[in-house]
Amino acid sequence: MRVHRTVAAGLVALLLGMAPGAALPAQDESAPAATGDAERMAAARDRVLPVVVSILTVREDFQQGEPVLTVSSGSGTVVTAEGHVATNAHVTQNGRSFRVVFADGRELPAQLVGEDSLSDLAVLKVQPPAPETFAHAEFAERLDLRPGDTVLAMGAPWGLSNSLSAGVVNNPRRLLVSLFDDEADYEDRLGADQPTGRYYAWIQHDAAIAPGNSGGPLVDLHGRIVGVNTRGMIFGGDLAFAIPGPDAAVVVRELIGKGRIERAHLGFRLRSLKGTGFERGVLVNAVERGSEAEQAGLRPGDRILGLDGDRVDAPQPVDVPALQRRIAELPIGHRVRLDIERKGRRERLLLTALAQPPDRGEERAFLPFGASLVELTPAMSRRRQLDTESGLLVTGVRPGGPAAIARPALQSGDVIRAVDGRPVASHADLEAFAVPGPGRSLVVEFHRGAERRLTALVPVYGDRVRTPLPELPKAWAGVEVQAVTGSLARELGLPGPGYRVTRIYPGSPLGQAGARVGDLLNALEGQPLLPANDNNADGFHQRVRELPIGHRARFLALREGRERHLEADLAAAPADASALRTLSQSLLRAQLRELGFYDRVARQLPATQAGVLVDGVESGGPAGLAHLKTGDLIVHLGDQPVRDLDGLAAALDAALGEGNGRVIPLQVIRGAETRILYLERYWLTETR
Fold first, then answer.
1. For a pLDDT cut of 70, what percent of the chain falls above it?
2. What's the total number of domains in the chain?
3. Which of 21-30, 215-224, 248-257, 275-284 is least confident?
4. Is 313 found in the same domain as 201?
5. Does the CA dihedral 449-454-456-459 come out positive or negative?
6. What pLDDT score does 67 carry?
7. What CATH number has the domain bearing residue 554?
8. How far apart are CA 614 and CA 490, in angstroms?
9. Which range marks the domain in which residue 601 is found?
10. Does 206 participate in catalysis according to the annotation?
């Protein structure tokens, strides 16, 4: 959740939320109100709650240059008979796949129709197996809320569907600027690269909402959607904010019709007259360098008095969003007339309304480089004071990956401009180099601040298999021991210093020689075993490793006050986890490794047990959505047993090739149980 730094200090964007629904009968708002608020609340509930849905979103975010799939949930409302669902853009942001859950428990996939980060609104469309007509709710046509009006917040807080809370409107027109904030910083606080709430004031209310409510409706007692719940307090009481319903309706309709929002841009920012001493107009707070506004002669500090002949005024911060929306709704190419006042003199300026450029480019991970990158926009470049407006901005680097070991290494904040002399301004430009081949170095030109640098980078393709370097085998006695110094021996009542046997591994050399748990080993090859301290048993294992594998080692042990001579044929030490092969499986989005001796012992499995151990799972990947967990041992996939990493890959290919059924069974050993899980083919294809 994004925390916004206001004096209230705690406003956060709530977690994702969406839903689909079906058309509801129109209600005559002029009819007499039901007797009592309880009846009216019940009527509003029954009108809207059945079409409020929960949304399951598989998101692709980026951590240290790697794409990571996670699962989020949110809320939404079905708003058309065709199954369009209105929700927040931060619910669908970075979404790779969507599912909606209806009030009756039915789940259906959904596709993103469009999203608009500047209003924080998005639209999904439900994909039923056969055409159907959906019940749906309707937006209020006008905002007529007053402080104290009862409102209902509906959605899925913390993923708990069909939830409803009641409260009252605190303020129907609220800007998230406290008495002590500088309103000029308002947009930057709402998001440096993707500000939201630029074009409306919020509805402040106290109906309880929590993460997961985002995108759900705020409903009045007429059963109208008067707002879309978007933000809440992370602490400090019931304080919530919703996008006004009439404003949301305009954006939703345009997203349904066009899939995007077209806005005009003049190249300046506004602030209210609060604290300036002026009584008329709106203040120009900032002018972008090189913009249409600057070229027309507009300057910071100018006061705009008229727009295309109409008077404009913004005495308070809450009045600014409506003016900014009015400018944004100007037709592209329209010749705009501004009447301004500068130092007591009035002037008229003419500007051409241009299409609003994107605030932020698309972010992706480029796996051959082991880096995440975002397409640079002029707005991003201005905010970072970069000397270039095109290229790929590095946002993260995978430790040990190609970008991290390039000569010199790339780092976050660098801007890639060219590869092997070819300009790179988009992901498509870079992906032209994603052709597997021999490990040939690429020459990457990048900007770091004001410097223009070159680096040699060798890309890596495909799933990452780590095969550890071979190590020389070492002798092993097959026991775990506890160091016992002379002073500790006296306190424990033991006959002397040495190493007390605490565990004997199955089939171990000392176990076969007759050792038991509790034996005190105090000599090896006739030399005393004297621990350096009570906390470290490495001295024992080091003495054993100094002997050759296969050597018959002679141990002296004390058991129940009597000396016992044990002779053990030392074996090669089993490989520990760091010496086993690992695989980052891109289709399952899971980290896997070979099963080793110590794994079998820890899980009390037979020495012949085969399988693949799960080392890590991305919650939003197919494995995570099948509820596979770290520590699970995969023993069967589809119709094939899984013996090792290669066997898993073969079983997965075979199961996908069959293409039968909606799910692929996956059998795992978890703790003392053997469980059956199911990989859904839908997620295997949707999250590729």
1. 88
2. 5
3. 21-30
4. no
5. positive
6. 85
7. 2.30.42.10
8. 45
9. 577-686
10. no
CA distance linking residue 661 with residue 625, whole number of Å: 17
Query: Which pLDDT value is given to residue 687?
Result: 58
3-state secondary structure 327-359: HHCCCCCCEEEEEEEECCEEEEEEEECEECCCC
Task: List, as one string, the DSSP characters of 25-73.
Answer: ----TTSPPPSSHHHHHHHHHHHHGGGEEEEEEEEEEEETTEEEEEEEE
Give exposure, 432-454, as e/b (b: 16+ Cβ within 10 Å).
ebeeeeeeeebebbbbeeeeeee
Phi-psi region of 462 (alpha: psi -120 to 50; beta: other; left: phi over 0): left
DSSP 8-state code for residue 139: B
Domain assignment of residue 469, yes or no = no
DSSP one-letter code for 401: S
Does residue 611 share a domain with residue 660?
A: yes
Which DSSP helix (H) or strand (E) runs through 649? helix 645-658
Nearby residues of 121 by Cβ (< 8 Å), 6 or more positions away: 86, 87, 88, 89, 115, 228, 243, 248, 251, 252, 255
Give the pLDDT band (50/70/90) at residue 14.
Answer: very low
Query: Of the residues 257, 291, 325, which one is the last residue of a structural domain?
Result: 257
From 116, 119, 120, 165, the catalytic residue: 120
Confidence of residue 16 (pLDDT cuts 50, 70, 90): very low
Give the end of a domain, one of 257, 275, 305.
257
Summarize pLDDT for 319-360 with one digit per residue, the tens. 998 999 999 999 999 999 999 999 889 999 999 999 988 888
Say whether both 77 and 14 belong to one domain.
yes
Same domain as 659, residue 625: yes
Q: Is the predicted pLDDT of residue 648 greater than 70, yes or no?
A: yes
pLDDT at 440: 81
Task: Give Rg (Cα) of the chain.
Answer: 33
- Let me know if 205 is exposed, middle or buried by CB neighbors in 10 A (0-12, 13-18, 19+): buried
Does any domain span residue 468?
A: no
Q: How far is the first Cα of the chain from the last one, in angstroms, to the nearest whole number?
A: 26
Residues 119, 161, 214, 372: which is the catalytic one? 214
Does the annotation count 534 as an active-site position?
Answer: no
For 159, the 3-state DSSP assignment is helix
Residue 50 — left, alpha, or beta (φ > 0 → left; ψ -120 to 50 → alpha)?
Answer: alpha
- Residue 52 maps to a domain: yes
Q: Do 39 and 133 share a domain, yes or no?
A: yes
User: Are residues 268 and 245 located together in one domain of the fold?
Assistant: no
Least confident of 13-17, 577-581, 590-594: 13-17
Q: Which tokens belong to 269? A: 């920012």
Closest of 470, 476, 527 to residue 498, by C-alpha: 527
Q: How far is CA 167 from CA 43, 150, 219, 243, 594, in A?
A: 16, 6, 10, 16, 55
Is 39 in contact with 108 (CB distance < 8 Å)?
Answer: no
* 541 a catalytic residue: no
pLDDT score recorded for residue 1: 33
Q: Is the pTM of this model over 0.70?
A: yes
Question: For 258-279, what is the mean pLDDT?
Answer: 91
d(CA 221, CA 39): 9
Residue of 54, 72, 75, 90 marked catalytic: 90
Domain presence at residue 470: no
**Are 124 and 237 part of one and the same domain?**
yes
Residue 437's pLDDT is what?
A: 64
Shared-domain flag, residues 649 and 667? yes
Q: Is the pLDDT of residue 68 over 60?
A: yes
H or E element in which residue 325 lies: helix 320-328
Average pLDDT over the chain reads 87
